Structure formats: structure tokens, C-alpha cells
């Protein structure tokens, strides 16, 4: 019992582990309060921890012999804010591209197929075409602009091309990317933005990517275009986006990430017209995906091998 | 001027035709009332008609020399109800598979990603997870059952497999279909239905397919499963579906087609729980697609060749 599984899904991870190794055993808890009930002796046994970052933070001071922490999330900012650095921190990577693709597709299709307008018509017992006179659209022939063509952006590009969508990609240093029809850099935005029906930001939060979605950017977009943010909230100048939506400079926006999460109840975003909000659920962490990463690292840890997806405390990712 | 374009999109078809052939000319109208304003001489000139079925029906008795009618729709039931049979009727086929696939994907993703629940949370300024405690799902690993694996069903199957969905197909006579993981007949439904997360009906309306979606069918489905009808309304026993949704025998249903269209304002479907209605908009007819079929047939007509997609008045399709 030299490990602790501290997660809302602790029971699932325990079962998955036992399915791999019948004599597997570990302490497990699903709340910080349960950790407080563990004895000093039990806490001292813990050399590895599988945990959500927020729960790990509650336990971090209580585990003197912790050597390895496997985060169940990609984002470990909360742990980086803690001064402790005498353990190896690993996170989850590489499992999110298909999920982000599904999210973007869900929202682009909801837009083209006017799902929300159909819902409103249904509530009013009205046959859709009779109300609005508008028609539903299709993906085919549309143009997607992807900001950042890492594994997530490339996966999205490939999937969208499957539906007859043309893809423009923006990267830091120009290179050929087979998933895109055209690749450029930030300098190409004035040429790319007016062509795009959908603009999707997948960029991480770095000094270079902060505040890039601003008035100048939004004014270059088509009035019929849609902006989707699955990268980080810091990329968006919030007031500029609200103004663009109110002035119908762009048709709609979908946000999954924000400067502050959860979004505060008084935030202007909640009732901004044509703005669709989701709550950082674009790429849900499925226990089976996380388990695969954990189990691979668990075997490496026991064999004293190098772990995968180690977070560099100095770089912050 | 030996032709008449009678369509809400008449202007578009005229422009597309002129782009193909600069000296193209035809009568055109967008309503039945405009046809009434045409002279007897003009009406007698008309040897071909490109029209929506409902508009064509209004004009059918006024065009003594009609030889060929190109419907802008796939469904020509309205014209089949008219006794006149002394002309060649052609319809639109083969352009709907990608559009139906988009429709099904839009609704399956809206279900997995809980788009409507997110919308409700947003209206209440609530961060989604905090409200419901539920989590969003994914397509990967799910099972789709397709009733009818013609061009539409096969296109849907292929697209869904791209997302890691397993596909069971039901056809009239068992044969290998590369787009499906397993193929069976109606007799295999008791085995197939309990496996399916999504059941999609793409079958046309024939005596064999009427009322197949009934209580026995719905009781065999998983309580977490979703039923989608993009075939014909006659396949569904309406009361049975309403009962299954009210009793939570299945999780949800999405209907695009009905026994009577438009759906009457007093119909029980409008506010049946977990029932999503759209108004026969799954496969919107895009003028450019329809034009391609028309233009090919127009050239064949002028060259006195056999037309494509001829409707057999005796079979009804």
C-alpha cells in the first residue's frame, strides 16, 4: 500500500488496476476529508499519488514521502502554485484531439443545422421553416481557420476536411502540414481571416498568444463567421468579443475556456447575444483514457524507469 | 422558351443555367399565382418543367404539352396523387447521404455533449458541472444500428465508424456491406437492438416498413439509447414512441419526418419529454445540387436521350 488514489473516480481506477494486476492494492479516497482520516503511518507510506490537481493540492502537505504525482488532468496550474517541488509531476497528454474535434464539430453542426432555433420553434409548436423562412446549412464548401496546429489542431483539421471543409492553419514557424490546405503564420491573419467561416483557437496560454482575439482580429472576420475557443481564455479580449457580437461583426462565438473559471455569475458573457458557453467540458477526461497513462507510468515507476509526460516546474508545462 | 422554372429558387436556377449556356432562356415563376398570369400561348409552349412538387401540382393542369417534369425534391408523393401520367417524372437522388450524415451527427453529438443542458445552465448563469454533476460523453466506443443500408445508411455508417463507432446494419436480404461491422435482417433486431446506443431509421415508406418502430421494438432498446428517424414518418407508431419516452424506456428521440407534415399544432409530439423535432430539414435541397441533376437531364432531354432518376408511376419511386 505505497500509493494513494485520490479522485472522484477512485473506485473506477482501483477496479481498472485490479483488472490489470489481481494483487494490486492502494489507499483510495474521493475527497480531501477522507485523506484527513488516514493515519500518520498510512500517509507516510504513500510514495505515489494519482489525483485531480485540486484534491492533490489538499493532500500535498500531508504526504512526506511522495515521489511521484500523476495528475488526472492536463492542466496542473494549481499544483505549480504550491512551493513543493521535491516530487515528479506527470500529467495527461495526447488523448484530447478526438474529443476536441467532436466538440468543435458538435457546435459547428449546431450552428449550421440551427439546432437552437429548432428547439425554440418546437417550444412554440411551430414548424421551423414556417417561422423563420431560413434554411439549414452544411459543412461542405466551408473554410476553417485553425489557430495552432499541434496534435489537437491537426486532428481537428483532418476531421473537418473529411466533411469537405477547406482548412487554413496558423503556426508559429511556417512548415508543411499535410492536414491543412494552406499553412501560414500570425502575419497571414489579415489574408486568412476574411476567408474563414469558422475560426477555432487551440493555442496554449503563452505571452505570445495572450489577447490575440481582439477588435482588429474580429473586424477581419466575415459577418457570417463563428469563433470557437478551445485553447485558453487569456487569448480573448473579453470586452472586444462582447462588442463584436453585439455589433454583429461576427455571427456567433462558442467559448469553453475563460480567464477565470468557473465564470462568475455576474459576468457579461452569460447573456451576450449569439454567445454559447460551455464549462471547460470540450475535452472531458475519461477514466479509461487517464488510466492508460497512469498504468504505463505506474509500471515505469515500479521499474525505476523514466516517466512519461513529466511536467517541467520551471516552464510550467 | 419551351420550359418553365417554377420554384422559390427560380432566379437561382435561371442564373445557374445561363452560367452554363449564355443563350439559355425559360419562363420562370416562384408561385402558382404567377403561373396564372401567363398567357395560354406561353403555357402551351412549356414542354419541360423544373419545380417543387407542390407548385408543380398547381400547374399540372395548365400545361397541355408537358413532356418532362424535373422535381427539385426526392419525395414526389404529391404528384403521384394526381391522375396525370402522360409525362416523364424525374426526381433528385444521390445527393442526400452526406447531408443526412451531418444531421445524424449533429443530433448524436448534441446528445453526447449535452448542448441543450449547457444552454439551460447558461440561461441560469450556472457553470454546467456544478448544476448537474453529470458529464459529457463521446462517440468513441458507441454502437450504431442503421435500419436500411442504402446510399444514405451506408454513408452514415462509414462516417460514424470514422469516429470509432461500431455499426450494425439491417437490410432486407443479408449481404456483406463493407461500411458495417455486422449486417443482419429484421429478424436480427432482437439481438441487435439491446446493443445499440443510437438507432437510426433510413428506410423508405413501403408496406414492409410501416409501423416497425413500435412498443416491442422500443422495449428492446437500451434505456440510455437514442432513436433517430430520417426515413419516413409511417415507420413510427406515434403513441408507442410517446409512451416509451414518457416511461423512459429509451433516453431520447429525434424526428425529422412525420405521418402528416407539417406537424399539426395540437400534436402530442411537440411537448413530449426528451423528444427533439425538426421540420423535414435533415437533408436540405441545395439549389446547386439540384441544378446539377436538372442540367444533366436537360441536356439529355434536348438530345432525346434517356433521362436519369425517372420515377416509376406504378411503383411510386
Reported for the largest beta sheet of chain A, the result is: 7 strands, parallel
Strand order of the largest sheet of chain A: 8-7-6-9-10-11-12
Overall strand count of chain A: 12
Distance between the termini of chain A: 30 Å
Indicate the mean pLDDT of chain A.
Answer: 93
Helix content of chain A: 25-40%
Alpha-carbon Rg of chain A, integer:
23 Å
Oligomer classification: homodimer
What is the number of helical segments of chain A per DSSP (H or I, 4+ residues)?
Answer: 13
Categorize the overall geometry of chain A: elongated
Order of helices and strands of chain A: EHEHHEHEHEHHHEHEEHEHEHEEH
Low-confidence stretches of chain A: none
Tell me the β content of chain A.
Answer: 5-15%
Greatest contact pair? A-B, 47 and 47 residues
Helix and strand content put the structural class of chain A at alpha/beta
Describe the overall structure.
The structure is a homodimer of 317-residue chains. Chain A is α/β, with parallel strands linked by helices. Helix content of chain A is 34%, strand content 15%. The first copy, chain A, has helices at 10-20, 32-36, 40-45, 53-59, 77-80, 97-112, 115-123, 128-132, 151-162, 189-192, 215-219, 238-246, 287-302, and strands at 3-6, 27-29, 48-51, 68-71, 88-90, 143-147, 166-170, 182-184, 198-201, 226-229, 252-255, 275-277. In chain A, the strands form 2 sheets. A 7-stranded parallel sheet of chain A has the order 8-7-6-9-10-11-12, sandwiched between helices. In chain A, strands 2-1-3-4-5 form a 5-stranded parallel sheet, sandwiched between helices. In chain A, β3 (48-51), α4 (53-59) and β4 (68-71) form a beta-alpha-beta unit. In chain A, α1 packs across α13 (287-302) and α6 packs across α9. The longest helix of chain A has 16 residues, at 97-112. The two termini of chain A are 30 Å apart. The relative contact order of chain A is 0.12.
Amino acid at each position: 500500500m505505497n500509493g494513494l488514489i485520490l479522485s472522484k473516480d477512485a473506485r473506477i481506477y482501483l477496479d481498472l488496476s485490479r483488472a490489470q494486476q489481481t494483487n494490486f492494492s492502494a489507499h483510495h479516497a474521493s475527497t480531501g476529508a477522507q485523506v484527513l482520516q488516514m493515519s500518520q503511518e498510512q500517509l507516510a507510506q504513500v510514495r505515489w499519488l494519482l489525483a485531480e490537481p485540486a484534491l492533490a493540492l489538499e493532500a500535498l502537505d500531508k504526504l512526506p514521502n511522495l515521489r511521484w504525482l500523476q495528475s488526472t488532468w492536463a492542466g496542473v496550474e494549481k499544483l505549480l502554485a504550491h512551493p513543493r517541488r521535491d516530487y515528479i509531476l506527470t500529467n495527461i497528454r495526447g488523448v484530447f484531439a478526438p474529443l476536441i474535434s467532436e466538440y468543435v464539430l458538435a457546435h459547428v453542426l449546431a450552428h449550421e443545422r440551427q439546432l437552437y432555433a429548432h428547439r425554440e420553434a418546437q417550444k412554440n409548436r411551430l414548424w421551423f421553416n414556417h417561422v423563420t423562412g431560413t434554411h439549414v446549412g452544411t459543412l461542405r464548401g466551408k473554410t476553417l481557420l485553425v489557430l495552432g496546429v499541434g496534435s489537437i489542431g491537426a486532428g481537428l483539421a483532418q476531421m473537418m476536411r473529411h466533411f469537405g471543409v477547406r482548412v487554413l492553419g496558423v503556426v508559429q514557424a511556417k512548415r508543411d502540414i499535410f492536414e491543412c490546405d494552406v499553412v501560414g503564420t500570425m502575419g497571414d491573419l489579415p489574408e486568412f481571416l476574411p476567408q474563414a467561416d469558422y475560426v477555432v483557437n487551440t493555442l496554449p496560454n503563452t505571452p505570445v498568444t495572450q489577447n490575440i482575439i481582439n477588435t482588429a482580429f474580429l473586424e477581419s472576420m466575415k459577418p457570417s463567421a463563428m469563433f470557437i475557443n478551445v485553447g485558453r481564455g487569456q487569448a480573448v479580449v473579453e470586452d472586444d468579443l462582447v462588442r463584436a457580437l453585439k455589433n454583429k461583426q461576427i455571427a456567433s462565438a462558442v467559448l469553453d475556456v475563460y480567464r477565470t473559471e468557473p465564470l462568475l455569475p455576474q459576468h457579461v458573457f452569460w447573456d451576450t447575444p449569439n454567445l454559447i458557453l460551455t464549462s471547460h467540458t470540450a475535452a472531458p477526461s475519461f477514466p479509461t483514457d487517464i488510466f492508460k497513462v497512469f498504468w504505463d507510468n505506474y509500471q515505469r515507476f515500479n521499474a525505476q524507469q523514466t516517466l512519461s509526460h513529466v511536467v517541467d516546474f520551471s516552464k510550467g508545462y
